[in-house]
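Justification of resources, computational component.

The compute hours requested in this renewal are based largely on the per-chain cost of generating structure records like the one below. Each record pairs the submitted sequence with a full structure-token output. That output is archived, and it is also reused by downstream analysis tasks.
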Amino acid sequence: MSLTRRRFTQILASTLFLHHLPSFAQSVKFWASLTLPEAQNITRIVSAGAPADLLLLAVAPEKMVGFSSFDFARQALIPLPEHIRQFPRLGRLAGRASTLSLEGLMALHPDLVVDCGNTDETWISQARQVSEQTQIPWLLLNGKLEQSAEQLTTLGKTLGEEHRAAEQANLASRFVGEAQAFATSPAANLSFYAARGPRGLETGLQGSLHTEAAELLGLHNVAQIADRHGLTQVSMENLLRWQPDIILVQEAVTADFIRRDPLWQGVKTVAEQRILFLSGLPFGWLDVPPGINRLLGLRRLHAWLDPAINRQFKSDMQHYAQLFWHCPLSDADYQKLVAS
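The structure output for this chain reads:
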């Protein structure tokens, strides 16, 4: 049975526990199954996916039993407390794409599963099914970048980490607010293409989580399909017609191919070397995953476009590292992360 608005309201009335959480709004900001434990009784949390990994790393690393998607023990690119770096990678909970079985989930004896991303009927239905089968409460948070502060404060209240989450939310609000202000300026009058995949022909459509950071800054996404959001494949003919002002790339293999391929030279932006290559992190700046890591990517892209923000970007990134990674970021480490 499809999860209609009426059915969702019935579920909300009968099975959702919304103690100290924001009220349900038309755009779903969060969804919770079963009865959420009191904050003091939540000591073991399983992350459902990569966006939740980074959100929980920020708000409550002490309560995580591991990461779903990251093995930071093998990566020294970002500063992390050593005990967090040693967290195991457990696998993700993502419907048919899950790599953590229900038996494996139950063996971890979690008090709560936390997920962050899409809150449409498909994801709510998947979360509800797993929660009912395992009898483990599940909290699903809307993963939109502009709602980062709300994600942080909601999770902070749920887990009894209000003070830490409030500091993080303040920084998130500043980054997002200043980006939205920039979006109204003439400097934001640029079009972009976000290149993904080995040949650069995969991209995020306008309105998707994958391109939200650039769009929040007011940049125009050339890849648009009516009533569709998410990833899509495009052709070189599309790109030659679109002629974006800048190209955003996060993978070295993609950047190398675009720079070397003769067909790509027909895109004026490539010929003029207006390719913004963001690398250096063990995850993406603007995507991969579409989590709160994008706050840092949003700020870095903003710094590229705005000299005033560029002058303070190092201190902003060091502040972010202290709040979200719980470690200081030295000047040398900063240079390594932004060297690209």
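The beta strands are 30-33, 45-47, 112-117, 138-142, 191-195, 202-204, 220-221, 231-233, 246-249, 275-277. Residues 5-161 form a domain with the Rossmann fold fold (CATH 3.40.50.1980).
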